Amino acid sequence: MGTVPGYAVPVSTFPVTRLRRLRRTDALRGLVRETRLSLDDFVMPLFVGREPLANHDLPGLARHSVDTAATEGQELASLGVGAVLLFGIPEEKDAQGSGAWDDDGIVQRALRAIRTSAPGLVLLTDVCLCEYTSHGHCGVLAGEEVDNDETLELLARTAVSHAEAGADAVAPSDMMDGRVAAIRTALDEADLGATPILAYSAKYASAFYGPFRDAAESTPAFGDRRGYQMDPANVREALRECELDVAEGADMLMVKPALPCLDVIRAVRERFDLPLAAYNVSGEYAMLKTAGAKGLLDERQAALESLTAIKRAGADVVISYWTKDLARWL
Questions:
Q1: For the chain, which domains are there?
Q2: What predicted TM-score, i.e. pTM, was given to this entire model?
Q3: 293 vs 222, more confident
């Protein structure tokens, strides 16, 4: 017999203590399981574009028309999925990304269509300009640099347009300084103060976004996004970003990507009480899809293990391309 330092409770040692006793059967393992996956906590990303585009290698990243998005929303709701996150690819792009706040834009039309086909579905929208700009960056340019302050008004206009079209929440992903405050002010002034903001607070300049950029046609025409997205080496900076977003009026926080940033998710969870989301991004999805297709691992088991790890790290909400599959697996 021994004791744990600082505790008076005696600790039994082998052979008296045998932790395998509670692992012996499925029923016992389920009884004492610490982290559980619930479909209520998952969000399915949906891409809506000028024309449908199938992706047979990565089916979760297929692109929908407005009509097929409405049908997909209805099917997701019937499976028990509670929320979707919409990304739009417009017919035309320009330097400012003006299609983002067009009242008849692709996301705005999709919002109205899905609201009709699946009225109970929670509709979140990505608020960024990268899918809408001809240069592929997340804001307007001053030379070859993104002009942070000039971009804020356009992001705010986009968020208001989405909320007016029926978005239940808006999710700014651009990583401009001050964008949460600008959006919060604009929503309040437009009498849309009840619309929550899910802030991509700690969004890293990650290599794991590649398949998404293909699906969303948002690869920068020059340079990269390291000047405004976070350095993957930093975690204290992530906490500062979250702190600023809370002060500016964010209702939820997000860490992106999820799997390379489990330590960041844990650090944010321990520091802040706001609901916390994590984005299980396209590259994470693609790796396991590809490995599963090659027979290198069991895709379902690997996906479930990965999603459980994200929840175990502290995420309340997980945005994942496996959400539709998860509805069947659970």
A1: 36-329 (3.20.20.70)
A2: 0.93
A3: 293
